């Protein structure tokens, strides 16, 4: 993988929302019909934690450059799926990244391929923004060595690109929620990985900052050719940005397709047990919660 | 090296020259004060010349008598050097434990590590295992026993602290350390009660042995000091990576458990060596790394090397206080560090409240 400073490959797809065809859901898995190299391939992914099955046979392919968002009620296994793709769980050969079985990648190799923005990243007390973003270069720094001039150049370039110039010496803990989220993204970008995993990355942000972060990610995936696999609770925002969505319930994929195909009142009522109204929008449908019984 | 034109504020955390100079300066001041001050006060200038005479090829007239030279080289210098080694090890181990456990209150004593070493050494002294070692008055098995005791105690603390599962907080680990320390201290008391003839030798060791330090003690501790310092300092950048938590550290390409076990083993080895040479001297591992953190920065790339230097200087200077404050009587050095450490611990507790909750 090339670091961001060296990855100037053009957007592999035309501007605007990419054309993604209908999907097939069933035993064969969830496959986008248009061609393109697979970034993530999950084949019968099963995960048990403390003896409890969390993922019960997931089949999914995410093509390079796609934005796929996994949705589902609490406990559906969304975060576990991301942890499995990120190599944090033992999954034998059920996960392949860019054609290579996850298990065949050494830790540092894997960290150059896939970067994660966690749901609630730890903010180390007293750590400056520059040092935090520099942690993203860990896969490139020799285990007992120190950062090179290239590593520092990459970090400064990422800070510039994310409009964080001048924040390097600031203490991370003193930043606002939106600024902090940009720093978390900056660390992930500094890894130079082309697969970005976002685990409910904006759950602590107000709607303005949520939009700011997702616009930034969308822009980056177009300019950097990133592949995005995300989990989200806000279904309207999820539908607004994702090329495809996957609905997970009780560890299985129960629906997959374009946002309009997945965000239906019937599916959401069945799997979320929620009363919602779905209104068509210019990019994706809007999901509005409604009260089941008006007094 | 930072790219050309990069200002100081945009450089990553690292040991700045002025702090390195301050650390080395503190060590030199501690050596000079430690060797000059005592029941027989010696002129610092003459002491400095006599210390230079220890360098190969240097032969200067210090103006000291032969008796005074013997005081410098045979009595005080080994005591000061042992203080530097023990203080450096305790502070380095404290800083490493704080990083490994991501806990600002972690310290060789609060984690029960020193109590583990203490019980193991008491077993050796009361049961006479391996008595009569060639290097020291203490049995040769003391450092080994202390290491086994240290590792056993820190393992117990870690397992007990982890029993809370995901709900555990940094305070849980410290409470586990307190429980383990109490348990081990009970074992120690029982042993002493059963072997009353050993009480005096064990207590003289427990209260700190810098007073009787000789070059043989320095030779005993030095290899442990070198190994511990080398391992911990070489892995100091990994402690910064570990500070974001195991999952994120793993996603950054680190093997968190491997790094953790290695650093715990190294820090426990250092603590064991310090305890076997000097008895129980508390709070160095919490005072020094926190002072460094407050003054020089929170990166472990800064904290650990400076803790080594300032920890050594701190203990050597504390020893000066211990032997001069109530002269001709000596106050046990562990009492002095506890008097300083108690209030400091309260200060740390207040600043770390947010982390702990």
UniProtKB/TrEMBL annotation, chain A:
Pfam families (UniProt xref): ABC_tran
Region span, Disordered: 1-36
Record's signal peptide: none
Record's keyword annotation contains Coiled coil: no
Biased composition (Low complexity): 1-30
Domain ABC transporter: 40-275
Matches recorded under InterPro entries: AAA+_ATPase, ABC_transporter-like_ATP-bd, ABC_transporter-like_CS, P-loop_NTPase
A GO molecular-function annotation: ATP binding
Keyword annotations: ATP-binding, Nucleotide-binding, Translocase, Transport
UniProt xrefs under CDD domains: ABC_Iron-Siderophores_B12_Hemin (cd03214)
PANTHER family cross-referenced by the UniProt entry: HEMIN IMPORT ATP-BINDING PROTEIN HMUV (PTHR42794)
This protein's name: ABC transporter ATP-binding protein
Organism of provenance: Micromonospora radicis
Lineage of the organism: Bacteria, Bacillati, Actinomycetota, Actinomycetes, Micromonosporales
């Amino acid at each position: 993988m090339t670091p961001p400073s060296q990855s100037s490959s053009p957007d592999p797809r035309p501007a605007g929302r990419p054309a993604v065809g209908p999907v097939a859901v069933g035993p064969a898995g969830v496959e986008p019909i248009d061609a393109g190299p697979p970034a993530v391939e999950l084949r019968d992914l099963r995960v048990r934690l403390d003896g409890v099955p969390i993922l019960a046979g997931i089949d999914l392919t995410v093509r390079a450059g796609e934005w796929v968002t996994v949705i589902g009620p609490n406990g559906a296994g969304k975060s576990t799926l991301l942890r499995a793709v990120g190599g944090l769980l033992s999954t034998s050969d059920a996960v392949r990244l860019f054609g290579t079985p996850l298990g065949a990648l050494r830790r540092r190799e894997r960290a150059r391929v896939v970067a994660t923005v966690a749901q609630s990243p730890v903010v180390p007390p007293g750590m400056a923004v520059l040092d935090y973003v520099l942690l993203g270069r860990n896969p490139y720094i020799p285990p007992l060595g120190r950062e090179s001039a290239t590593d520092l150049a990459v970090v400064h370039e990422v800070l510039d690109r994310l409009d964080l110039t001048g924040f390097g010496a600031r203490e991370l803990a003193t930043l606002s929620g939106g600024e902090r989220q940009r720093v978390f993204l900056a660390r992930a970008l500094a890894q130079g990985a082309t697969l970005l995993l976002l685990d409910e990355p904006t759950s602590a942000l107000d709607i303005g900052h949520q939009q700011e972060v997702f616009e930034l990610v969308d822009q980056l995936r177009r300019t950097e050719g990133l592949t995005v696999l995300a989990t989200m609770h806000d279904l309207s925002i999820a539908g607004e940005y994702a090329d495809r969505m996957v609905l997970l319930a009780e560890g299985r994929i129960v629906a997959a397709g374009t946002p309009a195909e997945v965000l239906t009142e019937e599916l959401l009522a069945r799997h979320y047990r929620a009363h919602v109204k779905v209104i068509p929008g210019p990019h994706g449908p809007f999901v509005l919660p409604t009260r089941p019984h008006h007094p | 090296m930072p790219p050309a034109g990069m200002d100081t504020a945009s450089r990553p955390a690292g040991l700045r020259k002025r702090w390195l100079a301050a650390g080395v300066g503190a060590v030199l001041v501690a050596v000079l004060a430690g060797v000059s001050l005592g029941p027989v006060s010696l002129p610092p200038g003459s002491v400095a010349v006599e210390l230079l005479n220890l360098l190969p090829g240097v032969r200067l007239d210090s103006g000291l008598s032969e008796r005074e030279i013997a005081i410098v080289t045979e009595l005080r210098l080994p005591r000061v050097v042992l203080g530097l080694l023990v203080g450096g090890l305790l502070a380095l181990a404290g800083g490493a434990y704080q990083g490994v456990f991501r806990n600002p209150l972690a310290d060789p004593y609060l984690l029960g590590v020193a109590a583990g070493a203490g019980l193991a050494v008491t077993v050796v002294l009361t049961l006479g295992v391996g008595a009569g070692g060639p290097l020291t008055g203490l049995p040769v098995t003391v450092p080994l026993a202390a290491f086994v005791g240290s590792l056993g105690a820190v393992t117990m603390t870690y397992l007990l602290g982890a029993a809370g599962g995901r709900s555990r907080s940094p305070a849980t680990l410290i409470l586990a350390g307190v429980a383990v320390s109490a348990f081990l201290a009970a074992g120690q008391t029982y042993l002493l009660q059963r072997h009353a003839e050993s009480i005096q030798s064990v207590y003289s060791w427990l209260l700190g042995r810098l007073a009787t330090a000789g070059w043989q003690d320095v030779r005993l501790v030095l290899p442990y000091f070198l190994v511990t310092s080398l391992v911990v300092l070489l892995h100091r950048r990994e402690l910064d990576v570990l500070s974001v938590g195991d999952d994120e550290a793993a996603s950054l390409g680190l093997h968190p458990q491997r790094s953790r076990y290695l650093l715990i083993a190294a820090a426990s080895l250092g603590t064991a060596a310090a305890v076997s040479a000097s008895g129980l001297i508390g709070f160095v591992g919490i005072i020094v790394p926190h002072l460094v953190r407050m003054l020089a920065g929170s990166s472990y790339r800064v904290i650990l090397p400076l803790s080594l230097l300032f920890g050594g200087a701190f203990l050597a200077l504390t020893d000066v206080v211990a032997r001069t404050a109530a002269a001709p009587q000596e106050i046990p050095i562990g009492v002095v560090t506890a008097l300083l450490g108690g209030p400091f611990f309260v200060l740390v507790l207040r600043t770390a409240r947010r982390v702990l909750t």
